[in-house]
Amino acid sequence: MNIRRSHKNLHLSPRPAGPLPVPARTALTEESFLRLIWHERKRAERSRKPALLMLIEMETPFPTGKNSEALGKIMSAMAAATRETDVTGWYKDDCVVGVLFTEVALEEGTSVVATVMDRVSDALRLRLSSRQFNQVSISFHLFPEEGEERIAALSNNPPAYPEVAVDVAVNDVVGRLV
Predict the structure, then answer these.
(1) CA gap 138, 116 in Å, rounded
(2) Are residues 100 and 106 in contact, defined by beta-carbon separation less than 8 angstroms?
(3) 89 and which of 28, 108, 125, 131 could share a cystine (Cβ 3.0–4.6 Å)?
(4) Number of domains comprising the chain
(5) E-assigned strand segments in the chain
(6) How far is CA 132 from the centre of its chain?
(7) pLDDT tens across 9-21, in order?
(8) For residue 67, what is the domain's CATH number?
(9) Distance in Å from the first CA to the final CA of the chain
(10) Alpha helices, DSSP H, located in 54-108
């Protein structure tokens, strides 16, 4: 097999002046994002390489039009504040935005969260009004959890643990049958 490349038709345009535009990234649907969280949580448990889940929620939803505008600005901020390898999706459709940070290097668990929080807060402040910014609630979940942290995570983050929900439902059915 012979492969040849031709550079004759290659034309490079000059780099535009000023900052490069942030490429638009599509957010995963709720179903796809929850499946990815489950997959990455299992990978983190197996490999002991941590993953960080950040959830962003508007504490008090605005009227429908204003809420979708604010969520659009949040999505734009996440595209600017996160790496290309980080995955953004709907944790709860049109209500809670999630970002999954994989390949997180942990020396001190809080330093990663503080770094991410600073970058995300700065990006949100640039795009949201002060009223909207004050309505934003951000939470973090680090995988894998250990001991008591895992028990708390099970109750506070059920979508990340669908196998537990199935076990509980099966036990409820079996309990009613007995």
Answers:
(1) 11
(2) no
(3) 28
(4) 1
(5) 51-58, 87-92, 96-101, 136-143
(6) 20
(7) 444 445 455 544 4
(8) 3.30.70.270
(9) 69
(10) 64-81
